[in-house]
């Protein structure tokens, strides 16, 4: 197995773990890590749909994390 494939699996684990959590802040951070990992993975393998999707998810997560901190 190539090292880049491990990155894809790690990203998948973070996405799955984020979906299993009930804490919204933890969900956003774990999902951000997973999406960022998939962005790097997509960049390495030059999979542009993966890059576009995860760029969108990264921006959405950052926006919602900012909203969470402004609500306090």
How would you describe the overall organization of this protein?
The chain has one domain. The protein is 88% helix and 0% strand. It is built from 3 helices and no strands. It has helices at 3-20, 24-45, 48-70. It starts with a helix and ends with a helix. The model has no long low-confidence stretch (mean pLDDT 96).
- The total strand number stands at 0
Determine the fraction of residues in helical runs and give it as a percent range.
Answer: over 70%
The largest sheet is: none
Topology order in helix (H) and strand (E) letters? HHH
Uncertain runs are none
Strand content bin: under 5%
Structural class: mainly alpha
Number of helices: 3
The average pLDDT is 96
Question: Please, how many domains?
Answer: 1
**Terminus-to-terminus distance:** 45 Å
Radius of gyration: 13 Å
Principal-axes geometry comes out as flat
Can you describe this structure in just a few lines?
With 72 residues, the protein is mostly helical. The protein has one domain. The chain is built from 3 helices and no strands.
Give the SSE layout.
Blueprint: H1 3-20, H2 24-45, H3 48-70
List key phrases describing it.
mainly alpha, about 90% helix, flat
């Amino acid at each position: 197995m190539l090292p880049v494939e491990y990155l894809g699996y790690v990203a998948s684990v973070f996405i799955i773990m984020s979906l299993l959590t009930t804490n919204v802040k933890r969900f956003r951070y774990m999902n951000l890590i997973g999406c960022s990992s998939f962005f790097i993975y997509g960049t390495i393998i030059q999979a542009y749909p993966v890059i576009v999707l995860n760029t969108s998810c990264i921006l959405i997560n950052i926006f919602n994390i900012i909203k969470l901190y402004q609500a306090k």
